[in-house]
Amino acid sequence: MNNYFHCALAVVVSLCALNSAGAQQTKPNVIIINVDDLGYGDVGCYGATKVKTPNIDQLAKEGRRFTDFHSASAVCSPSRYALITGRYPSRRNLWGPIFFNVPLVIDTSQTTIAGVMKKSGYATAAIGKWHLGFGTRTPINWNRDLKPGPLELAFDHYFGVPILNSHAPFVYVEDHKVVGLTPTDTIQYGITAETREFPEKFQINALGGGKAAHFLYDDRMVGTTLKNKAIDWIKTNKRKPFFLYYATTNIHHPFTPAPQFIGTSGAGPYGDFIHELDWIVGEIMTTLKQEGLENNTLLILTSDNGGMLNQGGQAAWNMGHRQNGALFGFKFDAWEGGHRVPFIARWPGKIPAGSTSDELLCNVDLMATMAALVSYSLKPGEGPDSYNGLPALTGKPKKPIRDFLVISPAEPANIAIRRGKWMYISAQNGGGFGGTKVGEHTLGSAAATLITKRVNTDIEDGKVKPGAPRAQLYNLESDPAQAVNVYNKYPVIVKEMRQLLKDAIENKQSTRPL
Questions:
Q1: For 53-91, what is each residue's pLDDT tens digit?
Q2: pLDDT tens digits along 175-210
Q3: Which of 307, 207, 177, 199 has its CA nearest to residue 250?
Q4: pTM to 2 decimal places
Q5: Residue 276's closest CA among 306, 246, 296, 255?
Q6: Which family does it belong to (predicted)?
Q7: Around Cβ 290, how many Cβ atoms within 10 Å?
Q8: In degrees rounded to 5, what are phi and psi of residue 489?
């Protein structure tokens, strides 16, 4: 009798465990691939012809492609802040990129997108480019534990490039430590670092040493290294729901693809780097299929901001590649090219395959979207600017999810707001890079038209015309390329948009009705 009882009990326990595991498995895994500097026109499914992106295009065929998706900022660090926190970077007074001596810009008491997922039983990881700082003091001591960082923001694991692939300290960080650092070769301030892009010197960084830890001497393998780390983490954590924030260093300059991609595109090194990116995405897709995870994983691909017109970008442009398609402007700008970005989402059986959406959404909305996905109720102050975009991923909302959207360029004076077909920019020019000569790494804003030859009624010979309106208003429905500033034509709309922007900035939570 005892043996029978024990056997029966074992069967019941086994069935309960099986049911529990099955219940766990019904929770969808989530991977967000946040690409660096991928423009609206940089992939085939968004119109690129000088590069080939079969894997990303296949992702679009199997999922939904969005045509009016934006980054909350046209700049890397503020954009990432928005994605992780669900709040506009202007609330943090964060406008430009941060560098090697800036502490963590996110308050560890804030709920993050990783926190939402972790509280819902998910394993969480951030792999790739971080670019949001470490620690609490300036300057950062790179030779000690880098705390707080991603792990203090609810990521269980971090591996990646702490700043970006063009700036010091050119090392990998795993969890709290620089990988491969030795006691006799520490990272030091006041030492000029050399890079592939600027081999003679790089005084802006003035951070060197730590040569044993540098990836700089093998920088063509950074994309492969990060990809391998992401795949290893997926395989290790596949038995429970997981959330992976995978931020690639592709396609940020310098353009250093692995050798097999060199010379493979029709857009020079810029395009070759896109080809490597497409391979990376394909490797992630293949892993999900091989591991039996494909049908229960929401896979998202997007970008931190629009494409950049740096030296490599100018070369690609001259070869016929258009980073941001027909959009006006580039990375850092308040114009559409600065922040309208690719967004593709695949979730078999939930997101209609081969579909498109023109819903106005933003990367700041990913936090509320994840919260809805896992049935987490955001509390006041959590993701205060984040809207639930899940209905637009899986269906067609009966009314717009967003009434308006605030966009931050590099210059605070040019902060912008979108409502319906209208885009209002608070000042003249793009609010982006200030280079004025073709060939300059920092060529941007009005001066970019010297190479693009794009038309805008406020600009002539690469400069804002004398007497141009003091701010800008565009009808994106009839003028998606922002060729005509109608600021003087619609004073009532201008007044409404200016007030809407003021209210949105002053309100602590823009998701509340104004």
A1: 999 999 999 999 999 999 999 999 999 999 999 999 999
A2: 999 998 888 888 887 666 555 555 544 444 456 677
A3: 307
A4: 0.93
A5: 255
A6: Belongs to the sulfatase family.
A7: 11
A8: -80, -30
Pair 385, 364: CB distance under 8 Å: yes
Of the candidates 6, 7, 131, 214, the residue annotated as catalytic is 131
End-to-end CA distance of the chain, in Å?
70
From the list 6, 7, 45, 76, the catalytic residue is 76
Six-digit token pair at 218? 């093998």
- Scan for tokens 């109608």, then name that residue: 486
Asked if residue 119 lies in contact with residue 157, where contact means CB atoms within 8 angstroms, the answer is no
Question: In this structure, what token pair is assigned to residue 410?
Answer: 């590099």
* Residues in CB range of 231: below 8 A, 6 or more apart: 283, 284, 287
- Per-residue DSSP letters for 398-456? SS-S-S-EEEB-SSGGG-EEEETTEEEESSSS-SS--B-STT-TTB-GGGGHHHH----
User: Is 360:383 a contact under the CB 8 Å cutoff?
Assistant: no
Report the alpha-carbon distance of residue 281 to residue 271 in Å, rounded.
Answer: 15
Q: Is the dihedral of CA 177, 178, 184, 186 positive or negative?
A: negative
Taking residue 248's Cβ as centre, other Cβ atoms within 10 Å add up to 31
Query: Could you give the CA distance from residue 416 to residue 334 in angstroms, rounded to a whole number?
Result: 6
List, in order, residues 6 or more apart from 5 with CB less than 8 Å away. none
315 neighbors 90 (Cβ within 8 angstroms)? no
* Locus of tokens 């402007």: 329
Clarify whether 45 is annotated catalytic.
no
Strands (E), 157-296: 157-160, 173-174, 177-178, 187-189, 207-209, 242-247
- Per-residue pLDDT for 4 more than 70? no
Q: Is 76 a catalytic residue?
A: yes
Exposed (0-12), middle (13-18) or buried (19+): which is 169, by Cβ within 10 Å? buried
| Cβ proximity of 425 and 336 under 8 Å | no
Backbone angles phi, psi at 203, to 5 degrees: -60, -25
Full set of structural domains in the chain with CATH:
27-182+213-398 (3.40.720.10), 406-506 (3.30.1120)
Give residue 284's identity as a one-letter amino acid code: I
Number of neighbours of residue 320 by Cβ within 10 angstroms: 10
Q: Which residues of 417-438 are buried (b: 16+ CB within 10 A; e: fewer)?
A: bbbeebbbbbbbbbbbbbbbee
